[in-house]
Amino acid sequence: MKKIFLASILLFLGCSQTVKVNANKSNFKANVLKKNKEKEDKNTLYKQYLNYAARYITLGNFNFALKNIKEAEKYKTEEDPYFYEIRGVIYDALYEKDKAYNDFYKAMILYYQNENYPRALQMLAYLQAMRFGDPELEKWEKDIKLKLYQQKLLKEKGNEKN
């Protein structure tokens, strides 16, 4: 039964080669990654660790999510708002509110700079839940909503021309 389970896990992970995995370890995905580290480039490893962190969040295992996000940080080559969003969720769940606030704030700024205003607004909602009534956050809310409205108007104008 364990062999079938391991084979299905390896198939799920997309491994094309045989890798020894200890079924008793709950962090087996990270072990598979360590075996293939030499063959993967930094960006691929970054995305894999980031995705594993997100999966562990959905499973409610925030300690393993934190381990994977720290591994992802080693391979991070550019500022990624999703990284800060995931790490903020982990810190929030582990009751490290100041770290969570800083990560959500950084994610909001990066989403804003990338003109992804809906996601910036979502990060702002997290921040407002942590510090309700903060005047700085109220300014950000007005600015993001204005940009979102302007973006919507531009799309509507583009549709009218066609």
Explain this structure to me?
This protein has about 160 residues and is mostly helical. The protein folds into 2 domains: about 30-75, no CATH class; about 80-160, Alpha Horseshoe (Serine Threonine Protein Phosphatase 5, Tetratricopeptide repeat). Helices cover about 75% and strands about 0% of the residues. It has 8 helices and no strands. The chain has helices spanning about 1-15, 30-35, 40-60, 60-75, 80-95, 95-115, 115-130, 135-160. The model is unreliable at about 1-25 (pLDDT under 50).
Helicity level? over 70%
Strand content: under 5%
- State the end-to-end distance: 59 Å
Supply the CATH architecture of the largest domain. Answer: Alpha Horseshoe
Number of helices: 8
Topology:
Blueprint: H1 2-13, H2 28-36, H3 42-59, H4 62-75, H5 81-93, H6 97-113, H7 117-130, H8 135-161
Helix pairs in contact: 3-4, 3-5, 4-5, 5-6, 6-7, 7-8
What does this entry show, briefly?
This protein has 162 residues and is mostly helical. The chain has helices at residues 2-13, 28-36, 42-59, 62-75, 81-93, 97-113, 117-130, 135-161. The protein contains eight helices and no strands.
Name some characteristics of this structure.
mainly alpha; 8 helices; globular; 2 domains; 162 residues
